[in-house]
Design goal:
Helices cover 25% and strands 33% of the residues. With 161 residues, it is of the alpha/beta class.
């Protein structure tokens, strides 16, 4: 991998807390700053497509994500995405040709201490460099086939079907 494209869609990984409202809102994509701080040994572009909680994504949003990936000249694409509908989006991206696409996110915002964001991003970056063309999910220290995984909301983790 000489160059990585990161497509951002929002989700928990980019949530920020507003004290005056006592609510979470989706802020600017965090992944570029995270990778810069880590001093990664590859070049990358961050392509913001959406800033939505994944529960609010619809088929039109998924088509927009797919189109953004198809437009990229580079083969390796990481997509940051909310965890609640990550599987549905990954399934909607099936059939992309000439690309390795890995979706990842976080169960806690990247700005929070103890967030799983950096770990999941690292897993996704490693996976996108080594997997054959296709669409995958990198969460909880594993690489998942979107057709064989679900989010267990009660346990707050991904698991095999």
């Amino acid at each position: 991998m000489q160059h990585l494209v990161i497509v951002t869609t929002g989700g928990t990984i980019d949530k920020i807390y507003f004290d005056d409202k006592s609510t979470f809102q989706i802020g600017e994509p965090q992944i570029g700053e995270i990778l810069d701080q880590l001093g990664v040994a590859f070049s990358f572009d961050v392509v913001p497509v959406l800033r939505k909680d994944s529960l609010h994504l619809d088929d039109g949003d998924r088509a927009q994500i797919r189109a953004a990936i198809e437009q990229q000249a580079h083969r390796h694409v990481v997509v940051t995405h909310g965890t609640d509908t990550m599987v549905e989006t990954a399934q909607a991206l099936a059939g992309l040709t000439g690309k390795v696409v890995v979706l990842t996110g976080a169960l806690n915002p990247a700005l929070f201490k103890g967030s799983d964001a950096v770990f999941n991003i690292g897993c996704a970056v490693g996976a996108v460099q080594t997997l054959p063309d296709g669409v995958y999910i990198a969460m909880n220290g594993r690489i998942w086939d979107p057709a064989r995984v679900r989010k267990n909301r009660d346990a707050n983790r991904f698991e095999s079907l």
